[in-house]
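S.,

Sequence below, as promised.
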Amino acid sequence: MFGGGIGYDFNRSFGLRLDYTRMSNVGDRNTGESDVGAWTAGLKFRF
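The prediction came back faster than expected:
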């Protein structure tokens, strides 16, 4: 498993984050093996 991300704060209260995660060899012979990649985005709000 590996991944990375980047974030940016627009100001002290509001920010944005974008991440990518990659997982290899998920599953087994019964369920099927595959590689999985996921992009996620998040908003951050501080108060």
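Residues 2-45 form one domain.

Coffee later?
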